[in-house]
Amino acid sequence: MEAVKLSHRLKTAANYIQSGAFFADIGSDHAYLPIYVCQIDQTARAIAGELNEGPKQAAQSHVSGYQLTDRIDVRKGDGLSVIREEAIDTVVICGMGGGLIRSILENGEGKLSSVKRLVLQPNMDSHYLRAWLDDQYFHITAEEILEEDGHIYEVIIADKKTTHQQMTDKQCYFGPLLMQEKNSAFLAKWRREQENISRIIEGLKKGKQIDQTKMDQFNQALQWTKEVLTNEDNSSNDY
């Protein structure tokens, strides 16, 4: 059987699913990721969750075509509701906004009692997600940022612990590990964001009534971004 092909971002996320995992992939997109994992790990099992009937049927067709119906169960449901009484150890949510991923986790919090690892790939607003993870005793143990087809994606791996990670607001905003590594994709993203934030601030200044709370938030974000980029530029000039 030919191996299923994954995008770089999904393969990056899949590589953090531990050997022998029983995981739920929420919003499974044709079940490509569960199929990939179960092909390379004969001990893995998965639930592929889809919200609507059409995507569910497409996922079932793919799972059947790859002869993995004994290890991948495709289910229709909203968010974590597809998890029933099983002791799932990993939850995977990729390709959604950080706010939506956070909402799915919050609404399905009762389904996370056995979960030891979250593999998350927010398309935007990842800081909302990091703040929730810290509150819920999930420590960010790995982060990756990558560029694919002109888009920049972040992958966040969080493991359940017994204490808070106690991230600062700045670490939540940039990613505690990403802001240490500062790879080329990270720098490209935040140089772009610096321009966007500056434009937003100028737009707010032109308004008839200035929303000072919003202005303060964007000014803080701009200051942090300048600090992160300035530190990198200074370190580059040392060589």
From TrEMBL:
An example Gene Ontology molecular-function term: tRNA (adenine(22)-N1)-methyltransferase activity
Q: Which GO terms describe its biological process?
A: methylation
Stored InterPro entries: SAM-dependent_MTases_sf, TrmK
Q: Does the keyword Hydrolase apply?
A: no
What SUPFAM superfamilies does the record tag this protein with? S-adenosyl-L-methionine-dependent methyltransferases
| Organism listed in the record | Streptohalobacillus salinus
**Which ranges does the record mark as transmembrane?**
none
Q: Is Methyltransferase there in the keyword field?
A: yes
A family per Pfam:
TrmK
Protein name as annotated: tRNA (Adenine22-N1)-methyltransferase
Keywords, comma-separated and alphabetical: Methyltransferase, Transferase
